[in-house]
Each structure stands twice: as structure tokens, then as C-alpha cells.
Amino acid sequence: MDFFERNLRFVSAKYARVVYRYPAWFIAVPLVVGVVFSTGLLFLNKFDNAMYLYTPVNGAGKYEEAVFQSLWPPEADGYFPSRMYSAKGQCFVYVTAKDGGNIYTEEALQAIANVNSYVAEQIQVTKGDLTLKYEDVCARANNACYLNPLVQIVKAFRQSPEAANVRLTYPKMVIGNQAIYLGSTIGGVEINKSNGNILSAKAWMLVYPLKFSSEDDQYKKDLWQGEFEKRMTDYDNSLLSISVFHDNSLDNELNRNAQVLAPRLLPCFLLLLAFSALSTVQLTKRGDRVCVNMRSCSPLVAIGGVLGACLGVASSMGLTSYLGFPYNKVVAIMPFLIVSVRIDNTFLMIAALAAADRRLSVEDRIVEAISEAAVSIFLTVATDALSFGVGCVTDFPAVRIFCIYTCSAIVVTFVYQLTLLFGLLVYEARREDQAAKKVQESGTPISAIISKVVSLTKTSTAASCKEQNGVRSEGKVSNDLKNKPTEKENEEVEFFNNFFSGQYATVIMSNQARVLTALIFLLYAAASIYGCMGIRQGLEPYKLLPLGSYVATYYQNLEKYMWTYGIQMHVAVVEPGNLADYKQREKAISLVRMLAESRYGIGVEGVECWLTDYLHFLTRQMGVDVDELSSSSFHDYVMLFLNMPTNEAYRNDIIWETQGSAMRIKAFRFLVGLKNFNDTVSQREAVAEMRRIASNNVGFNVTTFNKMWPYVDQYDAILPNIIQECGFGVMCMILLALVLIPKAVCSLWVTFAIVSVDLGVIGFMTLWGLNMDTVSMITIVMSIGFSVDFSAHIAYAYSIQTATEPVQRIRYALGQLAWPVIQGGISTMLGVLLLADLGSYMIVSFFKTVFLVITLGLLHALLFLPLLLTLTGEFSEKCRWHSCRIRKSVGSVPQDIERQETNNCDKSNNGLPAHNTCVCLRFRVDQCGRFALRNLRTNLLDKRTSDWDGGKSSYSLLRSMRVQAKGNFAEQLKANILKRFPNEVSITTEGTPQVTGFLEIEVNGCLVHSKKNGDGFVDTEEKFQKICSAIEACLK
Question: How does the protein's chain sit in the membrane according to the entry (predicted)?
Fold first, then answer.
């Protein structure tokens, strides 16, 4: 299980020595390369089409739109507003009463007419010698601009309601023989039940179509649209409230998100710089006193970590741009995220350097620090990069682009940490070494105090150990220890490490706290599941926009009135067949009725279909029985019907083709009015029902479409994509955990923590008012990687600790990594905290999700995971003990297990090892020794007994291993002793999570060797024989 972890440490140690020798190069080269790559920010491939970015690439709505584009291209001549199936080239003015009341009054209608005239006549823009008014850019029908003629018609009817041949009914009004659909123009209508005329109305939609076929038309359109937006958003009327929209509005307002974010970048980076610098201040504790370790107060590495992350983000964006990837404004959130998240690796490296033995050379300290932090840093980067890498495989372009840029930033920032940050770490270690030397050379009483502390430590350690093991001592040693401070009182420990491994671990490992933690987890799980049961899907377009956007007001007004009743759906019949045939014609009429009379259709009165009006034309005006017409006569009458002025709108609804010498209908379209289309649930159901009806009429090859269809498609695509991303992401996280965390049970609980955090994020997102949409998909992808970081760090530290008791292992893990993990969580929260008040749904969604991920991740890493790991460890120990007892009773216990289980040796009372048939040895080793214990165990215990004869040959082997283990002999010595005394010793190992430099050996409670007190490594025959003599004294 530890193959990758062991080799990663080995490679890291080799790499660290290279960095130590050439730190300037590792700082200068990344800076130069970063500046060069950052120039790519000047050439970003911007792509801001909301329809493309936030809807599924292969969504049915995009296919349906393509069908209409192939049959009825939007640049075709002849404009009728109801026939425009997209917003391309159109400007809209949505009018409501300022008091929310009736606009069907003479005063309000006159005000609407004034607005219409203002747009058509007063809005003009000048660019150089070019002056443009509406008449210069408008799309024309019959060589005239569209001027919303219904305004004047309705106004005239309001003034003279008894006008002949006019009925102002709803949703269609009738003028002579012509029916005009009002449902998409007037909203919030109340009907007079006696005559069907309109009594009141709440909203009116004015439409201004513009030419866009050529590049020159497009250029003029954009110029006039910009002036239209400026003038109409500032337009004020005492009676009317106005909201506007044009085909570039949504994209332009999306760009404002980046503009809103830009002013927050500098404060964010300054805040992170201040926090990182403050985090370098190390609090230490000696006895009951807490003080600042002045030698560790340089903020060089922390500030370098922030600046390196900023440079990594800039250069990664530039590099990605140079590689040709598109850019969209949602990526603007990425710098806040990456800079704050990547600082956690800086904290891990600072903690590793602080934990390295200061008595080692600077080079060895760097090697120890980097090899110590290598696995944690690699695990963090790999999980984050993989989670966003998985996010690149999605149907939503916005998510894909964001994940590409973010994954690139994570990788490039990691490279900067391996180079720039490691180089700064070397200079920081050298600075600390110089500071320590100055203190020693100053000749102050401190050096004398330190020497006294060391001498007292050597004697007090033995006394302390005897006291803990129930050993009484007499003579000189006992007298020397009277009134002397103990080792614990003189030992300087890091404050937060001591707190988390001491007081905090003691509290959460108590039985009462374990029960309380289990109850908290059950409540958390219940709340998460409850939230997941109420998931809401879909992203309304206006939620993409910043707070106060005029486009958001427009969409909300549409939802309130037009989408409630009157919005039109386009229906294309691509293979109509021979409509002169009675059966085929009846099938077509049946299709129209099924769509119109469905649950979301407003009935046949909401249909605009040439076929139904044509049949009425034949019977009512021509007096012709359609069933008696031949195929050619049928089509001749169709041509006559279309050439009538009142039926002009239908002319482009039919696509003709030549069949021999005759003309036949190749395809046609019609429109159906819809109702109750004003929320995500009804939109999803309405689209599904219309598509179902279309698919049931397969013979006609029917396609339905509205410009909202692609946005509705996301509702069905969101959940499968989230499940796919979560599934792939979790599998990748499990694989990484299995590869990098030595113990499988720890990997199991890390996997459980990932699933639990993701479940909580999704559940609490719902309870917090967030939908499942493209924005939350990005944040959920992000949560997969971030959720594993904290738990993986704790589980990894737990797995490498060699203490026999699970509680001791969790104390070590919390002591080493709880504070760096909390620092990483705080820095991430600070990075996104400035986004909380921006008001944009998209930005606030990021903030809420990051808050949930960090909070729940810390909760699992620091509370739930320690409980699970210790309970599992204790259960495993109990099972192992019972197994050993059973096997022992039948004489089948292996010698190594029997030695480890036998720990009830007698103690001496004269300061010397006691005589017994079993001798107890305790190894106290530092963090380097732990790694050696684990990494070399298999090789050492597989050696033949003849290789461990206790003579020079064994120490020759130990010296050869010292090169690989970097001076750690604990495991080698342990194996040597077990071979020398195969059935007569019991060896236990105790880690020292707070202090480095330990290699202590006790024999029956008495300290016989201490590296920290000056005995060094057991690297000579004399030192080894000293230990063996102490063991033999117990056996005599």
C-alpha cells in the first residue's frame, strides 16, 4: 500500500537537495516564465453567448432550433414578430403601470404610443460621419419598418369601442376577416365575460426588429442597440415602468459580473497576504507559559506563497489562452478560489519546516521538511486537479471552460510551489539557521540555560519514565532529581500542536464526546438527506446576472405576465405528406388540436395555423368543399389564400417544392399559445409534454421549439451530469486515497467522508435556496476535490503513526495537521468572503458552496473522522487480541505477535533492569523514525538470522541503510534486538508528535540510550552492546 508514498518521499528528498543547491534558479526562472505566459491575458478568446454556455451542448432544444434555421433562416426577408423563433436582431420594450395597475386606459395607451414614437423617431446614434435612426437599421416588411401597429389599433378601439368590424377579444382580436394574436403582446388581461372584449391589462410588449444579415448591418445594429439600451433604461414616465431587452443584453450583462468582481481582487489578495504573514507567527509553550518563537516570524514563505499563487493563476490563464481555449466571464471567479485554496500547501510547508529538527544541517532540514510535506501537497493538488479534470467531461460548455482554466491553474500553481516556493523555503531555513547561530555566538546566558536544560532533561527523563512505570529509584540519581523541573516543564512545544494533540484530542476522545459526536452526525445526515429530497433543478437566465441588472427585471416581468398566458410555441411539420388527402389532412388537424388542447396549451383560440384558417377560407368565403378538390386544385387555392393581404403572415410559413410540373408543400409551421409556463417545474413538464405529442406523430416528423427550450433542457441534463461528475470524481478520489494512504481502512473512511461531505453540500445548498444548475454543478465538482483534502491529511497522518493505541495515533495526526488544515480552511473562506455581498446569484452561489464545503470538510476532518478512525482501530485491536488469545491457547501464535502481546514484565527497584524471563523495551522515535519504521519493516524482518548476529556485519548493514533512511535506525535496531533475543523481549514504539530529535530506548522502564541527550544514533558496536548488556542483565 505504501509503494507510491515511499517512492514519492524518495524522489522528493532527491529533488529537495537539488533545490537547496540552486535556490536562486528555482526562484528566477518561474518568475520570468510566469511573466511571459501572463501576456496571454491580453489575448483571451472571449466567448459570452449565454445560450451556448449554459445549456447542454447536445440538448434537444439546439437540434430543434437547427431544424427551424434550416427551413426558415432568420435573415429571410419579410418580418412578422410572431414568426421570430429567436431574439436575434430584436429590441424589446416591456411596459407596465408604475402602480402595477391597468394600462388599458386612454392615458396609459397614449403614454405607450409616446414611448413607441420616442424609440422610432428620437433615438439616434452618431459615429463619425454616420448617424443612425431606427428607420436606418430596422428590418422591413413590405418595404416598411415595423412600428407596432397594434398600439394605434387598440388605442383607437379604446376611444371608439363601437367601431364596426372590430372585436377586441383575447387572445385574438378580429378586424374584419383577419384575426390578430394578442397573447404575446398584451399580458395580465381581464375579459368582459358578456362580450369577450378586454376590460383591463397589466403589460404590453413593444418589439423593434433590426437588420443583421451582413457585417455592415450587424455593425449598425450594435451601434443603435447600444444607444437604445442607454436611452430606454434612463427613460422616465409618470405612468409607466419600462424594462428593456435586446439580443446582446444577456451577454453584456454577464460581462458585468467580471466588472463587479474586478474591484474585489486587490482587497482579496491583500487580505490573504496579511493572513498568511500573520500565520507565520509561531506560538510556543513551555510549561504554563505561551510565547512567540521569534526565529519563525519571517513572512517570506507565506507572502511568497500568495504571490506565487497569483502569478500561477495569471500565467495559467495566459497559457490556456495561447493554447486556444475559449474564455468566458464565469472564469473571473477562479482567481479568488485558487489563490485562497492553494495557500493551504504553503501552510503545510511552513509547518513541515517548523517541525524539522533544528539541530540538523540546513540541507537536511530542507530535505526532511519537503519529504514530510510532499505526500500531503501532492494529495491536495492531485485531488483538486482530478476533480476539475473530471468536470471537463460535461455537456455544459460554461462548466467545461471553467474546469479547464481551474485545472490548469491548479497544475501551474503546483509547479510554482515546487520551484518558487521551495526556493523561498531554502532561504527561510538559512535565515533561521543564521538567527540561531547569532544567538549562540552572542554569549548570552541563554546558552547556559539551554545546556542546563539538556542536562536536566537527560536525568529527569529516566526519573519520569520510572515514575510512569512504577519503578522506584535510590541513590545518586534519585537525589539529583529532587526539586528539579521535569522534562515536560522544560520542553518547548508548538502551542497549537500541543493544544490539538492534548486538550482537544482528550475532549473529543472521551466517551461522552463520542456519543455527542455520533448524535451530531446523525442530525447532520438527516438534514442532508432531507435537503436532497427537495432538490430544485434549473437556472433561469436572469440568475446569471449581477444585482440590479435591467435584464433581470425584464425576465421577471415576462415570467409574471407573458409566460403565465400567451407565450407561443413554434411547431414545424417537416414531412406533411399530401394534405389534399382527407386522412392526411385530418391527422394534421388532429396534431394541431392535441397540442393546443394539451395541459399547457390555451386552446384552439391560441393557434395561428394556415391550414385551419385555409379550411375556413374555403368554406366561408369561397364556398368550396375541400374534399372535392383534386391535389392540384387544393394547392392552387392555397396560393390564392396566401396572396390575400390579410394572410400575408402565413406566406413564409410554408416551404414549397416542385414535383414534376406541380408545386407541393414540403414543410410548414404553425404556432400554439401556452399557459402556466412561469416556473421551472411547469416549464419542464410543458416541454416534455409537447415533445411527447410530437414524437407520437412520427409520420409528420414534428419539431417543437421556443427560444426558452434550450434553457429548459438543462433541467433534465443537470442531474445526470452531476451524478456523472460525482461518480467519476469520487472514484478518482478513492483511487488516490488507496494509492497514497498506506492503510486501507483509512482510505475507506476518507471515501466515506467524501460522500458524506458531498451529500451535505447538496442537501444544505437546497435548504439555503440554491438550485441544481450549471453554477452549482461547478461548485459541486469543486466540492469533490476540496472535501477530500482535509480528511485525507488527517487520515494520512493517522496511518503513518506507529503507536499501538489508536487514540495515540489520532493525537499525533491532530497535533501535526489540525492547525494547518484550519489555516487552509480560513484562508479559503477569506478568499471568497468578499464575494458574499455582491448580490449576483452566480457569485453568491459560489460563496455559499465554498462556505459549505470548508465548514463540512473541517467538521468531518476534525470531529467525525477521528471518531471513526479510533473506533475502527480499537475494534481491530480487540479482534487481534482475542485472536491472539485463541491461537495462543492452541500453541499457534507466531513469535513476533507473542512478543508484542507480552508486556507485563517486572521492573527493578535499583535503577537497573530487573531480572525476568521477558524484557520490556520502549522505543521513542521522532517523525523521521516513524517513516523508517514503516518503510523498512518488511525488508528487515525478512533477513536471515545469520545476517543479524550482533557483530560488525549487522552494523555494516545498518550503515548501508542509513543512506536510504537518512539516519534513522529505530526499525533496524528493533529488528536486530528481536533477532538477538528472539523469545525474550517485548518491544513497544511510542511516537513523539510534538518534538523531533528523539531516539530513546528504555529497558524495563530505565532509559539506557537517548539521541536527544547526546548519545546520538546507535551506530557503533559499543552503543549496541550497551543496550544488549542491559537486556542481558534482566535475563540473568
Answer: Multi-pass membrane protein
Alpha-carbon torsion (338, 825, 782, 417), positive or negative? positive
Exposed, middle or buried: residue 574 (CB in 10 Å: 0-12, 13-18, 19+)? middle
Cα gap 254→53, rounded to integer Å:
11
The pLDDT value given to residue 1014: 61
Q: Is 66 helix (H, G, I), strand (E, B) or coil?
A: helix
Pairing of strands 662-675, 607-608: antiparallel
Fold (topology level) of 493-533+741-746+753-883: Multidrug efflux transporter AcrB transmembrane fold (1.20.1640)
**531 CB contacts (<8 Å, ≥6 apart)?**
762, 763, 764, 765, 766, 767
pLDDT at residue 474 above 80? no
Average pLDDT for 582-598 = 93
- Give the distance from CA 454 to its chain's centroid: 50
Instruction: Return d(Cα 596, Cα 673) in angstroms, integer.
Output: 7
pLDDT of residue 2: 61
How buried is residue 679: exposed, middle or buried, by Cβ count under 10 Å (0-12/13-18/19+)? Answer: middle
User: Is there a contact between 704 and 675 (Cβ–Cβ < 8 Å)?
Assistant: no
The predicted structure's pLDDT at residue 899: 41
CA distance 854 to 851: 5
Q: For residue 36, list its beta bridge partners.
A: none
- d(C-alpha 869, C-alpha 281), whole Å: 31
> Per DSSP, which regions of 852-971 are E strands?
919-925
Contact 142, 133 (CB under 8 A): no
Mean pLDDT across the chain = 78
Q: Can you state the angle between helices 927-941 and 952-965, rounded to 10 degrees?
A: 130
Which pLDDT belongs to residue 888?
54
Report how far residue 672's alpha carbon sits from residue 627's, in angstroms, rounded to the nearest whole number. Answer: 26
Type and span of the H or E element at 283: strand 282-286
pLDDT digits (tens, 9 = 90+) for 440-462: 665 444 434 333 433 433 334 33
Q: How far apart are CA 244 and CA 225, in angstroms?
A: 11
CA nearest to 409, candidates 387, 390, 391, 385: 385
CATH fold of 15-44+258-436 reads Multidrug efflux transporter AcrB transmembrane fold (1.20.1640)
User: In this structure, what C-alpha cell is assigned to residue 388?
Assistant: 476539475
- The rounded distance, in Å, linking the Cα atoms of 857 and 851 is 10
What CATH code is assigned to 981-1035? Answer: 3.40.30.10
* CA distance to 800, 993, 998, 1019, 1033, per residue, from 1015 (Å): 26, 21, 11, 10, 20
Residues 6+ apart with CB under 8 A from 706: 85, 567, 568, 569, 570, 674
Instruction: Quote the cell numbers at residue 818.
Output: 489540525
**Which residue(s) pair with 22 in the sheet?**
none
Query: What SS3 string covers 400-442?
Result: HHHHHHHHHHHHHHHHHHHHHHHHHHHHHHHHHHHHHHHHHHC
Which set of grid coordinates corresponds to residue 760? 451535505
Structural domain spans, the chain:
15-44+258-436, 71-88+565-730, 493-533+741-746+753-883, 981-1035
Confirm if 115 and 127 have CB atoms less than 8 A apart: no
Q: Same topology for domains 15-44+258-436 and 493-533+741-746+753-883, yes or no?
A: yes
* Residue among 650, 809, 814 nearest 179 (CA): 650
Task: Give Dmax over CA atoms of the chain in angstroms.
Answer: 133
